[in-house]
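Milestone M4 deliverable, item 7.
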Amino acid sequence: MADEIRRTALITGASAGIGKCLAEVFAQHGFDLVLTARREERLRQVADDLAARYGIRTRIVVADLAQPGAVGRICDELAAAKLDVDVLVNNAGYGVPGSYRTTTWAQQGDFIQVMVTAVCELTHRLLPGMVERRYGRIVNIASMAGLTPPPAGHTLYGASKAFMIKFTQALALETRKYGVHATAVCPGFTYSEFHDVIGTRQHVSRLPSWMWLTADQVARESYDAVMRGDMVHVVGWIYRAILVLTKILPERLVTAVVRGNASKFRKTEP
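Output delivered:
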């Protein structure tokens, strides 16, 4: 990408999993990168590796999005470096296992801060520049959990992803006339650290192999979808088929199936 048209992508949760793969995909297409996550050493390794392999410029910002001031600090660092962000990828996320009543409000409050508030604030702060420059791409990594009936456990996860999908759709309609595309990407079960971090690896390992996506597949389909201008993209033909079935079959039946299989992928209390 020539210097006069160099573009920069900011990716949250970029130290591993889908975020790391997203960083690689944008690097392959010539985008300079601003990568943010909590783990400095791993983040720096990703940034240095991509800079060396693809000849791009990289910058890291170590931040914990559960902290209310984190987004402001990220944007302050961007301003100090005189960096315009052309692509925002809201990828950072996790789950709070167990039932709602057995978790603390501090756990749930941090979850909402990362999954909802930080996404909205970062988008709100960076969107005006995209509109002014008449170019922007916003990728919000949502989930099939936001499109299908929720099981018990991880109570706010599906709700946060449903919010992200609706937020993205409205945003896409508001901004398309300014050359800004917003896309909600909805993967299903994906090989990454996600299930290890929240302690559900033993549960999800019971799922059949055909239900699993790779982080690289999610990243590549995310890039293609936002460049096409899709508002919502479901990753993988198997999940697109599942979504069709959930719309055709009676909701009561779909809910019963989800409830009956929840123990395979959710940690709950009796």
